[in-house]
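Course assignment 3, question 2. Fill in each field.
Student: A.L.
Task: Predict the tertiary structure for the chain below.
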Amino acid sequence: MLLTFFGYLQTIQWYRLVVCSDNQPALREWLCAAIGLEATKDLVCIGSVVDGELRGVVGYDMYNGSSIAMHVAGKPGWLNRELLRVCFDYPFNICKVNVILGFVPSGNKEALRFNKHLGFTEDLVIPGGHPDGALSIMTMRRENCRYLGENRG
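Answer field:
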C-alpha cells in the first residue's frame, strides 16, 4: 500500500500537503499523539500545513482490499474542500475500497459530529468497546461520498 500511496501523492501538486516518505514518522507521531492511536506498521499519512505549521493529519491503515480505516486529527483552519477531495480520492479511487471505516470513542462527541457532518454513518455501537466507554464504528461508502464529484461509482 505504501508504494501506491506515495506514487499517487507525488502526482498531486498542492502546496499544503506534506506527504513524502521522509515525513511519515513525524506525521504518524503527530496523529497518534493527537488521538491516542497506537501506530501500525501500515499507517500512512497526509499532513496539512498552514502558514508553515503542521495543522492536521489524516492517516490510513487496516487496508484489506475492500475497506480501509481512516484516522483524523487537526487544529482549527487545517481542513478545506480540496484536502477532503484528496483524502477521499485516495481510498476510493486509488485503493479501490468499497468503504472507509472510522472508530470513534463514544466520549469524543466532537469527532462523532465531525464524521457525521462529512457523511459517515454510525453503523455499530459496541458498549465497553473503548476504555472511555462505547466504541462507534462509522462508515463512508463510495456512493455516499460527496467529495468524489463524478467518480462516485
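Instructor remarks: The helical segments are 2-9, 24-35, 81-94, 109-118. The beta strands are 17-18, 44-50, 53-61, 67-74, 99-105, 121-130, 133-141.
Grade: pending
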